[in-house]
Design goal:
- The chain has 293 residues and is of the alpha/beta class.
- The protein has a single domain, classed as Aldehyde Dehydrogenase, Chain A, domain 1.
- 41% of the residues lie in helices and 20% in strands.
- The protein has ten helices and eleven strands.
- The strands form three sheets. A five-stranded parallel beta sheet has the order 8-7-6-9-10, with helices on both faces. A three-stranded mixed beta sheet has the order 1-3-2, covered by helices on one side. Strands 4-5-11 form a three-stranded antiparallel beta sheet.
- α3 (85-94) packs across α4 (99-119), α4 (99-119) packs parallel to α6 and α8 (212-221) runs parallel beside α9 (235-244).
- It starts with 7 loop residues before the first strand and ends in an 11-residue tail after the last strand.
């Protein structure tokens, strides 16, 4: 008798754990030859709501961490990606890439992770300022994390586009919910396995698998989501995001980038998901006249 291969079911990643989707639904992922490779969870609105709750709980702790500590954790993610490079190459080839293309994408993803690790404790100096004022005050403008961010990945570069949008978001102290590429979702869940062993607190990154046409409107109307970052939207999908996100004035970014070129990694992607807060502080007058500090 011919042996029946047991296909792995790639679960989702919510709050640092790997649950099955609430609905119990899956879809079959096939390789370029049409052979069934894995079962992948098809997420529902309930899964999304659970991930928003996890991201909101994690936000205070993550945004309040020292920037250098966030940098250490992102660097650790890069180390773990390096150690599992062969696995990611294999999963990308299952999605249709050649061996060389897959290797290049994985190496770019690792390097990009390390790049944003280096920016964690530097972007504040670039985008913050000390402002001149006409009174006896210090006036500081500093970037602070926006909050809970939904990221909708495009279908190309199924690992690299995820890394390129998630890393600047969490480097800046945000927590995220990611809808992975449906064309090849396998690298996204393997990436979640990396996150689960990289000192990243549960809930900082939550990864869902499924389809935009079912979940996009829920992303835009949820009142506890502060921003939404999308890639690869159709004209109609772009319209839905713009219109529905006004319910709580979400910040909306729709990217159309070629993630494989160096110009698509920069600290301005961190700044997109920052809010500038300005603080006034009185200058104490020490020793009478003279206005000393």
């Amino acid at each position: 008798m011919e042996r029946i291969e047991i296909l792995k079911t790639y679960k989702i990643f919510i709050g640092g754990k790997f649950p099955r989707t609430e609905s119990g639904r899956t879809f079959l992922f096939k390789n370029k030859e049409g052979k069934a490779v894995a079962n992948v969870c098809q997420c529902s609105r309930k899964d999304f709501r659970d991930s928003v709750s996890a991201a909101r709980v994690a936000f205070g702790g993550w945004s309040g961490r020292a920037a250098f500590n966030r940098s250490q954790i992102l660097y650790r993610i890069g180390e773990m990606l390096e150690g599992r490079k062969a696995q990611f190459v294999e999963e990308l080839t299952l999605g249709g890439l050649t061996q060389d293309q897959a290797k290049k994408e994985v190496e770019l993803s690792i390097d990009r992770t390390v790049y944003y690790a280096g920016w964690c404790d530097k972007y504040q100096q670039i985008f913050g300022s000390v402002n001149p004022v006409a009174s006896s005050h210090f006036n500081f403008s500093v970037p602070e994390a926006t909050g809970v961010v939904v990221i909708v990945c495009g279908e190309k570069f199924s690992l690299l586009n995820l890394i390129s949008m998630v890393m600047p978001a969490i480097a800046g102290g945000n927590t995220v919910i990611v809808l992975a590429s449906s064309a090849n979702p396998l690298p996204s869940i393997s990436f979640a396995e990396v996150l689960a062993t990289s000192d990243l607190p549960g809930g900082v990154v939550n990864i869902l698998t499924g389809f935009k046409n079912e979940l996009l409107e829920h992303f835009t109307t949820h009142l506890d989501v502060n921003a939404i970052v999308c890639e690869g939207l159709s004209t109609e999908e772009h319209k839905v995001v713009d219109e529905k996100s006004t319910s709580n004035l979400k910040r909306v970014f729709v990217y159309d980038k070629v993630w494989s070129i160096p110009e698509t990694q920069n600290p301005y992607l961190i700044n997109d998901l920052q809010e500038i807060k300005t603080t006034w502080h009185p200058i104490e007058n020490i020793g009478g006249s003279g206005g000393g500090y």
